[in-house]
Amino acid sequence: MAPKKKTKKSTKKIQEQKVVDNDLEAKYRRSVLDVAILQDHIALQSQSIQMVQSDRTDLRSHMRELEQKLEKEREDHRDVFSEQSRRYKTMETELTGKVRSLELEVTQLNEELARCQEDLRREKDERQQMRQEKDTTLAELRHKLYNMETDYEKVLHDTLDSLTSQLSVARQGWEDKSTTLHHSYKGLLSNPVPNAPDI
């Protein structure tokens, strides 16, 4: 039996499904790219914090050396010491503010990364659900097709059986008529016709 031709509706549904699949795939690629960019940004911020903390440690170490020198020359260099202390406090305040700012930025980026990962997980779940629905629909259509093939096969067999029995009945009727005609002609041929001229 020839398969059914696709209707315009099923073609349209397939095209819509392809568009939805392409959109989901594009969203998925964008999400993966966003996650990679955020991870790179976090790595750079972490390196910056480490550099700032290293600089802070170096500055403290440097200030300790300066303080030791100043202790030796306290009487002669009081003005220099107070200036260095003021600078140290200013740098420490600036670096502390910068560290807090970077820590806040890292926290925000981590939250954004978590949101992106949640969006990615949700999109994966939606895609999986759509795939399952598509597989279910395909299975139902295959089942319907199998049932239709079985029904058509049954109708065809029933029709052929009916036709065969009708042909058998007709053949039996023809054979009976043929036998009757044969006997009738045989009887006529075996009995000579009266007053028939001799040849």
From TrEMBL:
Compartments where located: Cytoplasm, Cytoskeleton, Flagellum axoneme
Major location (coarse): cytoplasm
Family to which this protein belongs: Belongs to the DRC12 family.
Assembly and oligomerization: Component of the nexin-dynein regulatory complex (N-DRC).
Function: Component of the nexin-dynein regulatory complex (N-DRC), a key regulator of ciliary/flagellar motility which maintains the alignment and integrity of the distal axoneme and regulates microtubule sliding in motile axonemes.
Alphabetical list of PANTHER family matching this protein: COILED-COIL DOMAIN-CONTAINING PROTEIN 153 (PTHR28656:SF1)
Name of the protein in question: Dynein regulatory complex protein 12
Annotated source species: Cynoglossus semilaevis
